[in-house]
Structures are given as C-alpha cells and as structure tokens.
Amino acid sequence: MLVVEGLSRRFGVHTAVADASFEIERGAFVGVIGRSGAGKSTLLRMINRLIDPSEGRIVFDGVEVTALSGRDLRLWRRRAAMIFQQFNLVGRLDVLTNVLMGRVATVPSWRAVVGAWPDADKAIALSALEQFDIAGLAAQRTETLSGGQQQRVAIARALVQEPELILADEPIASLDPRNTRVVMDALLRINKHLGITVLCNLHSLDIARDYCDRLIGMAAGAVVFDGAPAQLTDALAREIYGLEAADVIDHAPGLDPVRPGAPVGEAAAA
Ligand SMILES: Nc1ncnc2c1ncn2[C@@H]1O[C@H](COP(=O)(O)OP(=O)(O)OP(=O)(O)O)[C@@H](O)[C@H]1O
C-alpha cells in the first residue's frame, strides 16, 4: 500500500502541493485529475523522489520512501517506474535498446555501456514489446516511431523494470485520440493482468472516468476530491477544473454543458 501523509512542496513562496494525504491499495488504477498547474506533476515526482517534499511522508509497504538515499533510493525508483508525457526515450537508439534500459539495474554496468545485453534480458524486452504489439519495431530507430508507438516503448521499458507501482505523468497529453486509447489500454492491461498499481495524471476527465477505479482531484495544490468516478458530480468537476471545465467536461456523458458565469460547487447547490 502507498501512503501519502501531509505531503507539501513549496517553490519559493509558491505552494505547488499543499498537505496532500491519501492511501492507495495495491492493484488500484488511480487517476489524478485537475487543471494545469494544480500540482499533479509535482505530486507524482515527489512519490518517485525526483523532487524532495518540503513536508510530509511517503510510505510504501512499510518503507519510508521519504527517508531513502543512495542505493535504497535507486531501488525505490526501480520499484516505482515513471512514464512521462514526452516519453524520455533515446531517439537515435533502436527500440529494443531503449526497452533494455529498464534492465540497467540488473546487469553489470559495462554490459549496458557496450550494449552487450544478456540474451535473457533481450528476451524479456522483446516479450514486453510483444505485449503491446510493437515487437516488429524492435530494430527500428526510436525517433522514427509515432507518438503512440513511442509511448508504448516507454511503457515496455517501465514494465521490464518489474515495478510494483507505475507513475504516469500525463502519458497521453501529446497523443491523438486513437493513440490515447491504445496507450491507456496498455496501462490498463498492465494493471489488470499483472496487478501493478497505476497512479496516472490525466487532464481529460472523460479518459479518467473511463479507465480509473478511483479519482483524486487536485486544485491549487490541495486534494479536493477523492472517490469513485461516479461520485464526481458535475459541480465538483467544475470546481476542480475552474476555467478549463468547458474543455474537459463538455463531452462527458451525464454532465450538463458548462454555462459561462454559472456558479460552482456549494454556491451552485445553494
Ligand atoms: N521547479 C519549479 N519551480 C517553480 N515552480 C514550479 C516548479 N515546478 C512546478 N512549479 C509550479 O508549481 C505549480 C504546480 O505545477 P505542476 O507542474 O505540479 O502542476 P500540474 O497540475 O502537473 O500542471 P500541468 O498539467 O500543466 O503539468 C505550478 O504553479 C508550477 O508553476
């Protein structure tokens, strides 16, 4: 189980994440939603320890993640794989080598440097590519792939790390609608077939509702909603997304179109 307790991060006088607390059960598929600048990225990066919290604790299966350093911190980053909006692949290298980078902690470093990967690791990497229907691209330079294909390579790289948690930071933000579904399906498959917990930052409410078991809504750094997608009312969605509400909830089934100037949240209910 992942426990986040009173987690905050300040950048100068600006508070990016304010006193966030929640628990996530193993095997859950949780979406973090909110408008641009709400603190979603900072939250995920703190969990991976790419950013250090100003206050608060992160505990995973009894391990105090916030206290880790050196080798233990590297091990944690292996257990909690990150997936980024811009894929973070090495474009000039072939697809298989990019996936093999996820095995780097399990082989002597000279092997990774000279590209002398053990056959067993190559088989693991190929099998991960097969799962996402891109094994045929293994020998291709990664920069020649489409965005959706590249994100699947990044997911395969995360998978061969054998993580227990996947932290996906807006993984579909730069993809077209078809590739959005392909990539979200890949994450869902990992979650449902392998039981890997997924925590995924998403801007689109429609996608979050379709794929996640649970949503955590953030606004101005604070957690303002935590519950099942069905519990997220129209009024709450408007509160979370503010001025961006029209972009993200207009097409959601069961939601009324947003009227400019309409009151939100408690004010709307009054
Ligand atoms: N390194 C930094 N230095 C200063 N301010 C930062 C830094 N990183 C994030 N912030 C600020 O913290 C706030 C939260 O940013 P964050 O990227 O976490 O939001 P987000 O919800 O992920 O937004 P987006 O969807 O646009 O990525 C923003 O106001 C942002 O400008």
Give the overall silhouette: globular
Q: How would you spell out the order of helices and strands?
A: EEEHEEHEHHHHEHEHEEHHH
Which residue ranges are poorly predicted, with pLDDT under 50 across at least 5 consecutive positions?
252-270
List each distinct ligand once: adenosine-5'-triphosphate
Q: What separation lies between the terminal Cα atoms?
A: 38 Å
Helix content: 25-40%
| Rg (C-alpha, Å) | 19 Å
Mean pLDDT: 89
Strand segment tally: 10
Strand order of the largest sheet: 6-7-8-3-9-10
Q: What portion of residues belong to β-strands? A: 15-25%
Looking at the chains present, what oligomeric state does this protein adopt?
single chain
- Total helices: the number is 11
Structural class, by secondary structure, is: alpha/beta
Described by strand count, sense and barrel closure, the largest sheet is:
6 strands, mixed
Task: Give an account of the 3D structure.
The structure is a single chain. This protein is an alpha/beta fold and 270 residues long. It has a domain at 224-252. Helices cover 37% and strands 23% of the residues. It has a six-stranded mixed β-sheet with strand order 6-7-8-3-9-10, with helices on both faces. Helix 5 (119-131) crosses helix 6 (147-160) and helix 6 runs parallel beside helix 7. The radius of gyration is 19 Å and the shape is globular. 41% of the residues are buried. Mean pLDDT is 89; it is low at 252-270. Residues 11, 14, 16, 34, 36-42, 203 line the site of adenosine-5'-triphosphate (ATP).
